[in-house]
Design brief:
Blueprint (H helix, E strand, L loop, with lengths): L2 H20 L4 E3 L4 E3 L5 E7 L12 E7 L5 E7 L2 E7 L3 E7 L4 E8 L7 E3 L1 H7 L2 H9 L2 E10 L2 E9 L7 E8 L4 E6 L5
Parallel strand pairs: 8-10
Antiparallel strand pairs: 1-6, 2-3, 3-4, 4-5, 6-7, 7-8, 8-9, 10-11, 11-12, 12-13
Helix pairs in contact: 2-3
Length: about 190
């Protein structure tokens, strides 16, 4: 390989490594069992639902946040099926809940505050996206909203799906500004 090619490849490799270092890896619950914060102050644990097997209330698992130093805990959410969870720094948790074979939603939890989590799902996005994109969400019956990472005050999302309107599927890349509560999406080429 020539020196010129190596010099051209170095910035690309550095950029890829920098982007990868910003995003913590997602782990899948309930299989993971627990996930410790980068600084070790908190741990997210899975808890199985404690009820008789003849009862059904729609939840099978719960995610709990535990302060390691004090032992205090708070329930983050219930979930059915699978939840993909990642730390964003030491103060935020990013979660994608796979609610069924047809849908998922993204959540952001602050571990230091008691404010409600940010929840982004199909109904929320229908209200937030520009009018020309709303029919995609309304008319397709498989819509997945997946968190990919949180950087500063921007949550990055993948929104994809398919159904009667988009038989071959659609794929968007979206940014949700946490402070403003606004979303912007770009449509992947060839989709839609």
């Amino acid at each position: 390989m020539s020196h010129r090619r190596i010099l051209l490849a170095v910035p690309v490799v550095v950029a890829i490594l920098a982007v990868q270092s910003l995003a913590a890896p997602f782990v899948l619950f309930p299989k993971a069992g627990e996930l410790v914060s980068p600084d070790g102050r908190f741990v997210v644990r899975n808890a199985e639902r404690q009820a008789s097997t003849s009862e059904f209330d729609g939840t099978f698992h719960a995610l709990w946040l535990i302060d390691v130093a004090t032992g205090r805990s708070r329930k983050l959410c219930d979930y059915v099926g699978v939840a993909a969870v990642a730390w964003s720094g030491n103060d935020f948790l990013v979660v994608t809940q796979y609610l069924s074979k047809r849908t998922s939603r993204a959540l952001v939890f602050s571990v230091t505050g008691s404010q409600d989590p940010v929840i982004l799902d199909k109904p929320t996005l229908i209200r937030m996206v520009p009018p020309e994109l709303r029919d995609v969400l309304r008319e397709d019956d498989h819509v997945f909203v997946e968190a990919s990472r949180l950087e500063e005050s921007t949550l990055y999302l993948r929104v994809w799906g398919y159904g009667p309107r988009d038989v071959n599927g659609f794929r968007w890349y979206c940014r949700y500004a946490l402070l403003e509560g606004s979303v912007s999406c770009s449509v992947e080429r060839g989709s839609h």
